Backbone:
């Protein structure tokens, strides 16, 4: 078998194993949480009999392993159960939310990733000179300010004072793409500012590392311009570390947007999760956890595979 | 100016250095060097490291490596003064009129791009050829340089061809844009001797056929004698002597040049083997973990007390692997290691502290074999503490003794490795090995990274120490001149096997087996016309077979 296929297969198998392990952790974690779902649903009206009945109805009287495997096989078949609080199918209500979160993350990534890499290249080109220092200062400053503060600042100045973008980012299916994009302009800006520094710094560091190589000198002695040397000869050899940090940030864009969604009243997964954690709706929390874990593991797997593919020694064995 | 294609006048080069704990300061690397070069001629620049050879070579492209800066003088290429021109015009010159072949093609090719793409890049970038023309020219050069499958070799990635092939690809890269001058910077130094011959011949023919001028930089006088018309000897940034190749090799005027020419004259008469070898490697077969092929096959050799066994061979022949087996880093699949009358455990865990003490190692790269944050005293003192429990004044006294043995003064005790020269670093490594009072020291290419004169000093030191301490050396090297200078017996290794083994006089006397013959005849000799002679002989032999 081609060594690449073997490595990729290994990564896939590892990721699946990791996801299973994550599912166990999520299940155990939510099961040992203090508080009783039945108690919180019935509230003041709870009597010992009604509690026992409800527990039986919810399947809580069965052993934890049985409940875990029921839940896992359900999830594998696309059934994440029903929300305890409103009795609605989780997959159905989560689907729309997930789509919205991915929509936001996608547009943030479209802006942030190329911008970060370009700024990284630019920083290398003018290293230790003012453009490099300016880029570093601005990106580091923006990552250092809490995202909710950036969110509110943008809302106040750009949204309210200048009136350039809506301050509430709620989107509906009936909106056109243009209307949606206009609605999410501010949260996309916030997310971009939050992830930019990390990716930019890594691109800069990875390329600077490669710039020490002898083949960079060869390229310079061919009479190429500085930017050609960086983009054509240095960047292709810096892909692996850059992809890794890009994927970590993409995962953050999906998993870590809770605060931004709440600030901008954006109907995504984060808000949905926060709502249901407050209500102790365990099946919803489990479902969200599982999806977040899958996204995280999946993106990191992609990073691993891209790193493998970026290595010419593995791609073209002797 | 038509025939004087390259003219260098009073070239001065400096650099800004940042010594630890001191203020940055400027130093001079080259102090006013002048020379001229005609079209189609080859000038050899020779000297030890730090002589400024590469720096001068790169200055002909107005390029300074790292913090190096050209501080004075003038350089004319094709009648144009280039040091005063701006970067934009320089870029037009680099890669078309003047090109560069570096020492390590493996490092100088971008690993992520195909060979052909890199070979033709400069021609395309400078608009010298169309893509089609450049590709055709590249294939033509691949053929001329004797590369296998010239039509398709360019589609491979650098790691997919051998070191010798890649070095020839680098030459093709330099010749592709039809330059007027090529700077060859130690192009064969990293190659095995048997490969070196082919690459040297390929370079020589390519220079002759294309009529380019060339600067050929090397520290190996025997090599430069084969390819140059003229030789310039440099030392610490000054020109020592400049003349025709014949004059420099056969009638050197300056003393330094005479030292360089005679450096390989160290003599050593082999001692006869004794009855009780101190180290015996018996039928060792070994493979690396996770692989399914043996890298050593039935390797057997003996090392006698107070003697030197040279293990010689090309890269990949299994020399260093043999050392790994002896030290216990790689347990063999079959075979045994006897040491001073006892069996050594095959793996490191099973060895006693005495076993470890009596078998020490010295490495090729002295830099990386020492902790840069420890002083020389700490480095040498460590084995004294570890093996003998020495402390305080007793330890200090012994450290000073050892420093004296390696011919370094007591003031070195508080220095850090970064403050030492390459030869001094290797001496400290020798002292560290001696501190353990070993019976055997494995020397793995200990002189390969050093300049000839410095290496000569190290070899002499090792020989003296052997007489005083009666220590045996297992001396791993690819350099046959070193072998002749130091060995009592020799094991020639090839593809994981010992192909020839015995006392030095027997191994180096005919009749030879094919491989030893090839190896011995490949060592450059310091006389004109040697290269042609060898190549001619080989052609006749292969025609005869």
Residues:
């Amino acid at each position: 078998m081609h060594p690449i296929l073997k490595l990729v297969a290994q990564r896939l198998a590892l990721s699946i194993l990791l996801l299973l392990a994550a599912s166990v952790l999520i299940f155990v974690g939510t099961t040992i949480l203090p508080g009783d779902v039945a108690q919180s649903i019935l509230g003041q009206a709870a009597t010992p009999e009604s509690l026992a009945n409800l527990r039986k109805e919810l399947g809580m009287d069965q052993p934890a392993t049985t409940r875990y495997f029921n839940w896992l096989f359900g999830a594998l078949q696309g059934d994440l159960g029903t929300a305890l609080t409103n009795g609605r199918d989780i997959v159905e209500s989560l689907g729309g939310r997930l789509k919205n979160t991915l929509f936001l993350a996608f547009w943030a990534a479209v802006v942030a990733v190329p911008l970060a890499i370009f700024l990284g290249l630019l920083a290398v080109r003018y290293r230790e000179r003012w453009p490099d220092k300016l880029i570093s200062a601005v990106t580091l400053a923006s990552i250092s300010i809490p995202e909710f503060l950036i969110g509110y600042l943008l809302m106040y100045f750009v949204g309210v004072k200048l009136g350039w973008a809506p301050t509430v980012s709620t989107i509906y299916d009936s909106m056109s793409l243009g209307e949606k994009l206009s609605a999410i302009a501010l949260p996309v800006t916030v997310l971009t500012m939050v992830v930019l520094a990390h990716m930019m710094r890594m691109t800069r560091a990875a390329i600077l590392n490669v710039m020490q190589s002898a083949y960079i000198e060869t390229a310079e002695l061919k009479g190429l311009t500085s930017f050609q040397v960086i983009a054509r000869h240095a960047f292709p050899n810096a892909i692996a570390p850059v992809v890794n940090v890009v994927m970590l940030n993409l995962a953050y864009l999906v998993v870590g947007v809770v605060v931004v969604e709440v600030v901008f009243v954006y109907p995504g997964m984060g808000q949905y999760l926060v709502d249901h954690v407050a209500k102790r709706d365990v099946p919803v929390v489990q479902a969200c956890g599982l999806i977040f874990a899958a996204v995280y593991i999946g993106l990191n797997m992609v990073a691993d595979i891209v790193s493998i593919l970026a290595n010419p020694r593995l791609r073209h064995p002797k | 100016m038509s025939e004087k294609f390259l003219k260098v006048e009073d070239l001065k080069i400096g650099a800004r250095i940042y010594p630890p704990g001191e203020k940055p300061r400027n130093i001079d690397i080259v102090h006013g060097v002048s020379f001229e070069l005609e079209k189609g001629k080859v000038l050899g620049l020779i000297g030890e490291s730090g002589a400024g050879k590469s720096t001068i070579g790169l200055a002909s492209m107005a390029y300074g490596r790292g913090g190096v800066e050209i501080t004075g003088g003038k350089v004319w290429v094709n009648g144009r003064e280039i040091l005063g021109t701006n970067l934009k015009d320089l870029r037009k010159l680099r890669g078309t009129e003047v090109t560069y072949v570096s020492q390590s093609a493996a490092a100088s090719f971008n690993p992520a791009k195909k060979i052909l793409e890199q070979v033709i890049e400069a021609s395309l970038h400078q608009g010298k050829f169309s893509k089609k023309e450049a590709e055709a020219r590249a294939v033509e050069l691949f053929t001329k340089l004797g590369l296998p499958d010239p039509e398709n070799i360019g589609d491979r990635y650098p790691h997919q061809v051998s070191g010798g092939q890649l070095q020839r690809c680098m030459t093709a890269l330099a010749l592709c844009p039809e330059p007027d001058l090529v700077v060859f910077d130690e192009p064969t130094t990293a190659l095995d001797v048997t490969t070196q011959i082919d690459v040297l011949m390929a370079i020589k023919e390519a220079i002759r056929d294309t009529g380019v001028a060339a600067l050929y930089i090397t520290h190996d006088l025997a090599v430069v004698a084969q390819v140059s018309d003229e030789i310039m000897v440099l030392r610490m940034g000054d020109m020592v002597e400049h003349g025709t190749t014949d004059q420099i090799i056969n009638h050197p005027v300056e003393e330094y040049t005479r030292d360089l020419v005679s450096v390989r004259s160290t003599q050593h008469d082999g001692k006869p083997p004794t009855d009780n070898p101190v180290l015996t490697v018996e039928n060792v077969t070994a493979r690396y973990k996770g692989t399914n092929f043996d890298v050593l096959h039935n390797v057997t050799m003996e090392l006698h007390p107070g003697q030197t066994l040279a293990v010689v061979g090309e890269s990949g022949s299994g020399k260093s692997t043999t050392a790994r087996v002896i030290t216990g880093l790689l347990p063999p699949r079959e075979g045994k290691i006897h040491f001073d009358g006892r069996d050594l455990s095959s793996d490191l865990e099973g060895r006693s502290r005495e076993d470890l003490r009596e078998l020490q190692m010295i490495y090729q790269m002295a830099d990386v074999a020492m902790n840069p944050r420890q002083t020389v005293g700490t480095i040498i003192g460590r084995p004294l503490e570890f093996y003998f429990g020495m402390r305080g004044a007793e330890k200090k006294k012994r450290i000073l003794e050892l420093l004296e043995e390696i011919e370094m003064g007591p003031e070195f005790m508080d220095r850090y490795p970064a403050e030492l020269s390459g030869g001094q670093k290797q001496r400290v490594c020798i002292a560290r090995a001696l501190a353990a009072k070993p019976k055997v020291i494995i020397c793995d290419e200990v002189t390969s990274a050093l300049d000839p004169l410095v290496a000569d000093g190290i070899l002499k030191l090792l020989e003296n120490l052997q007489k005083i301490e009666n220590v045996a050396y297992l001396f791993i090297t690819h350099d046959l001149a070193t072998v002749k200078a130091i060995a009592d017996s020799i094991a020639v290794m090839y593809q994981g096997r010992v192909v020839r083994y015995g006392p030095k006089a027997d191994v180096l006397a005919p009749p030879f087996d094919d491989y030893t013959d090839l190896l011995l005849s490949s060592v450059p000799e310091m006389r004109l016309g040697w290269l042609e002679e060898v190549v001619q002989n080989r052609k006749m032999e292969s025609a005869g077979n």
